[in-house]
Design brief:
127 residues, alpha+beta, OB fold (Dihydrolipoamide Acetyltransferase, E2P)
Amino acid sequence: MQEYLHIKTGGKLYNIPFSKVRRIEARRSSCVIYFDDWETDLIVHTHDMKEVHDEITNPDIFVKIHRSHIVNMHKVKFYDTKKKQVEMEFIKTDLNLPEGKQKITVNEFVPVSPEGRKRYLAFNKSH
């Protein structure tokens, strides 16, 4: 089974381990790939969400929870049924902070559509 996301952008080919990808967000004609421990996120101008979704062949990790969001289920903290969103918690390194305080905990919230809710629940039921 493939363990890497292969993305070509800006004249470079990236082989990104699935375990490093937190989530993917569609933005018009591009996607943004968010990471936990990389200094910057990767903006992919040459791929739309369908192309990236087709590239992710590991259903044991990624779930499309919204038309604009694919999440790594191993990074989801919980699903808020009232707010219809998942919370993801991760550690980010900020080199602009003083030494010893460069690692910070970040919480982010990602919307879940009705179809995404079904996929989220099906994933949890099968795992």
